[in-house]
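In practice, a research group might receive sequence data for several interacting partners and want a quick structural hypothesis before committing to experiments. The following worked case mirrors that situation: the sequences arrive first, and a predicted assembly follows.
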Amino acid sequence: MQEGNGPRGREEAAAVLVLNPEDNVVVCRRDVQAGQRLVIDGDVVVARSDVALGHKIARRSIPRGARVVKYGMSIGSSTAEIQPGDWVHLHNMKSDYIASHSRDSRERR
Amino acid sequence: MILADGHLRADGRKGIRNVLPVIYLVECAHHVARQAVERAQDDRVHLLGFPGCYPNEYALEMLKSLTTHPNVGGAVLVSLGCEGFDREALAAEVAASGRPLKTVVIQEAGGTRGSINATLEAVAAVRDAMERQERRAPVAISDLTIGTVCGGSDGTSGIAANPAVGRAFDRLVDAGAVCIFEETGEMIGCETALSRRAASPEVAAAIMTSIGNAESYYRSMGFGSFAPGNAEGGLSTQEEKSAGAYVKSGSRPVKGVIRPTQRPGAPGLYLLDIVPETPPKFGFPNISDNAEIAELMSCGAHITLFTTGRGSVVGSAIAPVIKITGNPVTYRRMAEDMDVNAGRVLEGTATLEELGEEIFRLTLEVAAGAVTKSEALGHREFILTYKSADALGTLCGMTAR
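A structural hypothesis for the assembly, expressed as tokens:
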């Protein structure tokens, strides 16, 4: 995906999307590189690792055990101290309903 | 608005395709049925089947619904001869619907080659009868039932393909169609938001009950409706996947909660609950996406809108599948399989409203005969497995067929 390319190219400048003002995570609309500066509602957050398209980055600090909020609703709880710019995924959050399973772990709780 | 002439059935429903399924009634009859379908060299002849030898009320009711689906004009049953499936009951249902039907029993037809030939002759006879009794009638949007399902979801699904389908669903519901969304296991975490959209307190209670049931069912299976690819695509939890999946339903009131084989009697938006009410007996509610598509078809779906992030290639027997990906990388990698590139919303080259309009229009074109990517590629997937009869459940918020 190239920036500034296409009829609404200027809107492509944002690499991440805020889905709801209450969210403490944003979604990558393309691959983000470690160290990349992300402007999120006027605040600058620096990505602390490479994060792939469709994945989540914390826009705020999320204390261990706090709700991770996306779409304005809770999508689970953090299992570690999360800093702004951190990739947020199975390594630092979990479901409050049913454990997720992935190829490298039979179960994560 | 009239879309095209459809196939008028005796019950008044209208098909957008005219399919002749060849149905094996036990795995032992699969080869004969498949050979006959391949040799028939006719895009209208599709292979369906049920592999088990032990009888199953759910499978019987599913095949009754599917062989009397408006897109189906007649059928050929292929039986080994000694299996437990009640082929007479299925044949009686098809005959009562006014459709031509033939049954081939392998043990009576002289082994493999004789049975393949007998099945081909049966296909030719049923096809002739379908052509003789063909009646055409104009199809309007209000004649259509449209289902939606997601497969291979990722972090783009909930922000691109699914909300785009939700906007198309709103347009279809407003135009008088029946729209069905499903998988209460993928509503876990959304039960409160969804119940607020219920058309009545009874439907709200049914939504809460069915999603609660899905949660306890999946919990006892040890897995949610969450595949490794979902995590690789950026989804972390069941409730995150749910929040993204739920927006496929659009924004209109939920008129009722239905079960497989139940057909809504009035236009509007319905939730299909596919999870048995009793503890697991035969395994996961649906083992793969095509089992869900089969259940949507059993409720009358003429077309299924299938959203995918990771990239699925499937289609379906009987009813066309329109595939929509919200992931621009997946679209570029698998463009020959994708009917709609909703990834444009992430690239900033289209809005959700524009994509919803595109999906709405494409749905009407496919109803009028346009061929989907999966149809053109020959995808005719079908799967039917054992399930508790109580998955067929009780009616709520709907008129019985």
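Before designing any experiment, note the following. The two ends of chain A are 36 Å apart (CA to CA). Strands of chain A lie at 16-17, 25-28, 37-40, 43-46, 56-58, 67-70, 73-78, 87-88, 93-94.
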